């Protein structure tokens, strides 16, 4: 089973298992298909502009001494990739608190650079600690900030402006506990916009200080190698290349996931920007129409396959699609890769497209009730009957995400302590507790729809 497909659409979580074979194949096929299918039209991933914001701490409150690596990374993005680079160093003793400064910096960064054909890349280097709320991350200049030296920023507050952009967003964090930053809940459908987070570590883990074995050193090395090896690559390829850096710790596991509740069918593509003449030559004059940035609509197709296609077959298919688009009277702006997914098959019943199942069941436990969901896709989710779904979804001691009733987002990590099947509803109900062993809602039974796989 494709780990990418499973993680993205079965569990509602949006972690990318970048070392999984299917995820890597998807990444390669995305670029290959785009290379051939976009002949004669604007590439689906090519950005007109890439703006980079590098955030770190001023030397007066930076006990990690990150400046050297930040400068090297800025040089890589500016000289090799031709990106616009802005370097912001936070102070704790200025006229404004670091939180206020970061909030304004992010808002201004979005205001000045946002656009439908833009990639906004935000990088942070410094300390990181889990915040007071589940899924929050606090950024600090010193390992132990004091009241007199409040060098602390809650990133969840600062990034609010990044959540409502036309541009694609890539956040790259070199700090301990980067994976503790809450990810998008997924499962709410699909959007054309990509918002990805690449962190130095998984949840609860630390990373090395600046030096040959640091995450930033690995990132700089990987960007340099990939720029020489290829004219473009996805974030999946980037994180795998970082782990190949000569001094990168073998046991360290960076994390890649989506920061939005709307999943994207594509990965962010990184490539050096073309100069004006190259960009103009790459796109025919009739396609250099900015009104095409706001398409009238989209045509969706689903193609069933008997086996995984080869690279040659994907390339030829892309060529055929391109020729077909050139021979139609329709004005086609672009054709985007929508992913290669293994299908679920039980007695001839195939799984629906991911966007049709807000919360798909665990593929290893397919029941008659699950097949019934497939047959009743036209009904709203609330109308789905679990009968005779007697195979419970969660077991005792299993970790789950609990929906916050106020926001509708699965954001609280808890553990199942008891379960029962309610014949009157019908459906499974659970009692859960938080990480401090406190029963949720004083031990009240929680319905299955209020929980999601962790």
What order do the helices and strands come in, and which of them pair?
Blueprint: H1 3-10, H2 21-37, E1 49-57, H3 67-80, E2 84-90, H4 98-113, E3 118-125, E4 127-130, E5 137-140, E6 152-154, H5 155-158, E7 168-174, E8 195-199, H6 215-229, E9 233-234, H7 235-242, E10 255-258, E11 269-270, H8 276-282, H9 311-326, E12 345-346, E13 349-350, H10 368-375, E14 399-404, E15 409-422, E16 427-433, E17 446-447, E18 451-453
Parallel strand pairs: 1-2, 1-3, 3-7, 7-8
Antiparallel strand pairs: 4-5, 5-6, 8-10, 9-11, 12-13, 14-15, 14-18, 15-16, 16-17
Tell me what you see in this structure:
It is built from ten helices and 18 strands. The chain is α+β, with helices and mostly antiparallel strands and 454 residues long. The strands form five sheets. A six-stranded mixed β-sheet has the order 2-1-3-7-8-10, sandwiched between helices. It has a five-stranded antiparallel β-sheet with strand order 17-16-15-14-18, with no helix packed on it. Strands 4-5-6 form a three-stranded antiparallel β-sheet. The radius of gyration is 23 Å and the shape is globular. The two termini are 18 Å apart.
Tell me the span between the first and last alpha carbons: 18 Å
Order of helices and strands: HHEHEHEEEEHEEHEHEEHHEEHEEEEE
Query: Counting H and I runs of at least 4 residues, what is the number of helices?
Result: 10
Helix proportion range: 10-25%
Mean pLDDT, to the nearest integer, reads: 76
């Amino acid at each position: 089973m494709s780990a990418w497909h499973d993680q993205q659409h079965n569990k509602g979580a949006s972690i990318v298992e970048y070392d999984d074979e299917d995820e890597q194949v998807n990444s390669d096929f995305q670029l290959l298909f785009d290379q051939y299918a976009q002949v004669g039209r604007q590439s689906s991933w090519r950005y007109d502009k890439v703006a980079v914001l590098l955030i770190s701490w001023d030397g007066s409150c930076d006990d990690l001494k990150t400046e050297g690596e930040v400068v090297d990374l800025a040089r890589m993005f500016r000289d090799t990739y031709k990106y616009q680079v802005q370097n912001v160093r936070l102070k704790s003793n200025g006229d404004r608190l670091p939180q206020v400064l970061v909030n304004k910096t992010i808002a201004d960064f979005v205001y000045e650079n946002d656009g439908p054909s833009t990639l906004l890349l935000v990088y942070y280097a410094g300390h990181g600690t889990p915040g007071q709320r589940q899924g929050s991350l606090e950024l600090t200049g010193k390992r132990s900030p004091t009241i007199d030296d409040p060098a602390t920023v809650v990133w969840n507050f600062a990034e609010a402006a990044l959540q409502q952009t036309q541009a694609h967003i890539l956040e790259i964090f070199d700090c301990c506990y980067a994976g503790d930053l809450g990810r998008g809940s997924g499962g709410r459908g699909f959007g054309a916009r990509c918002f990805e987070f690449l962190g130095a570590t998984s949840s609860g883990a630390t990373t090395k200080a600046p030096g040959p074995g640091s995450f930033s050193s690995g990132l700089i090395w990987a960007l340099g190698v990939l720029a020489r090896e290829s004219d473009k690559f996805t974030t999946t390829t980037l994180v795998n290349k970082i782990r190949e850096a000569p001094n990168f710790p073998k046991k360290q596991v960076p994390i890649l996931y989506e920061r939005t509740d709307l999943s994207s069918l594509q990965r962010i593509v990184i490539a050096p920007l073309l100069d004006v003449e190259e960009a103009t030559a790459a796109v025919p004059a009739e396609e250099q129409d900015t009104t095409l940035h706001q398409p009238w609509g989209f045509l969706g197709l689903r193609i069933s396959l008997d086996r995984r296609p080869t690279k040659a077959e994907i390339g030829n298919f892309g060529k055929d699609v391109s020729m077909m688009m050139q021979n139609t009277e329709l004005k086609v702006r672009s054709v985007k890769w929508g992913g290669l997914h293994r299908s679920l098959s039980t007695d001839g019943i195939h799984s629906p497209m991911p966007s049709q199942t807000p919360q798909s069941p665990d593929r290893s436990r397919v029941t008659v009730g699950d097949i019934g969901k497939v047959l009743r896709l036209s009904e709203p989710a609330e109308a789905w009957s679990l009968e005779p779904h007697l195979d419970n979804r969660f077991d005792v001691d299993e970790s789950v995400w609990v929906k916050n009733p106020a926001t509708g987002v699965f954001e609280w990590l808890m553990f199942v302590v008891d379960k029962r099947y309610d014949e009157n509803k019908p459906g499974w109900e659970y009692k859960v507790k938080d990480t401090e062993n406190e029963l949720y809602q004083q031990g009240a039974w929680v319905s299955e729809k209020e929980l999601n796989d962790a």
